[in-house]
Amino acid sequence: MWPWLVALAVLAFAGYAGWRQWHAHERADAEAAQQQVAALSERLNTLRAEQRSHARRLQQADSLNRVLRDELDGITQRAALLEASVERLADPDRHGAQALRLDETEMLLTLGGQRLQIAGDLDGARRAYALAAGVLEGIDDPAYLSLRQTLLQERTALDALGADPKVKAIARLDAYAQDVTAPAQRDATARASTAPWWRRAFGNLLQVQPTDRAVAVQAADRAAALAGLQLEISLARVAAERRDAPGYRDALRRADTWLQRLAPDSQALAQQRAQLQALAALPLSLTVPTLGSTLQQLRQLRAR
User: Residue span of the signal peptide, if any (predicted)?
Assistant: First the structure.
C-alpha cells in the first residue's frame, strides 16, 4: 500500500514540477512576444516618422522644382527679349542718324495729333507737322517716299482748315451780342423819350402787347429780359470755349426765347433770330479725316 502512495506522490510532484516549468516557458514566450510587438510597434512608428519626413522632403523638392521652372521660364523670356532686341539692333533702319530721325518724326506726329485732338491747338499741330516734315526730308531712303507724300496731304488738310472753328464761333457770337444788346438798350431809351404824352402818362396803367406771346414793356421787365439774353450768350461763349456743342446750342435756344421777349414780331426780329440760328449751326470741333494717317503708315513701315 505504501509503495503505491509514494509512487503516486512522486508522480504528482513530477507533474506539478513539469507544469510549473511549462508555465514558466509560456510566460517567457509571452513576454518575448510582447517585447517583439513593442519593438515592431516602435519600428513602425519610426518608419511612419521617416515616411512623413520623406513626404515633406518631396513637397519641398516639388516647390523647389516649381521655383526653378518659373525661373527657367523667366530666363527663357529674357532670352527672347534679348534676341528681339538684337534683331532690332541688327535692322539697318535702327542704325545711326536715320533711326534718330524716324524716332523724332514719330514723336512729332504723335505730339501734333494729340495737340489737335485733346487741346484743339490747330497752330501747335501745324508747327509739329511742319517740324516732322523737315526731319523726314533728311532721310534719303526711297522706302519713305510715300510717307512724305502722305504727310504732305495731311499738312494740306490742316492748312485748309483756316482758323479754329471755335475761335470763329466765339468772334461771331461776340459781334452778335454787341449788335443785339446795345441797340436793345438804345431802343428802349428812345421809345421812352419819344413816346406820346398819353403813353407816358398812362403807360403804367395800360399796356399794349401781342396776344400770342408776352413782350416785355416795362423798364424792369425789359432790363430782366436783356440780362437774361446777355447771360445766355455768355453761357454759349463758355460752352464754345469747351467745345461743348450741345450746351452751346441749348444756350442759344434759350437766348432766342429772351430775344422774343424784347421786341414784337418784325423783320428786324426775324433777321436777329435767323442770325442766332446760324450761330447755333456753326461747328465747334476740328474735323480732319486724314489725321493720323502719316503716323500709322510710319509705324507700319517700321514694323515691316
Answer: none
CA 136 – CA 144 distance, rounded (Å)? 8
Q: What is the largest CA-CA distance in the chain?
A: 185
Domain-embedded: residue 242: yes
Distance, in Å, from the CA atom of 14 to the CA atom of 21, rounded to the nearest integer, reads 11
How far apart, in whole angstroms, are the C-alpha atoms of residue 288 and residue 242? Answer: 19
Residue with cell 519713305: 144
Quote the domain boundaries for residue 158. 96-163+289-303
Same domain flag for 151 and 181 = no
Residue 203 lies in a domain: no
Query: Does 92 score more than 70 pLDDT?
Result: no
Q: Provide the number of structural domains found in the chain.
A: 3
In the predicted model, is pLDDT for residue 132 greater than 70?
yes
Most confident of 87-96, 207-216, 277-286: 277-286
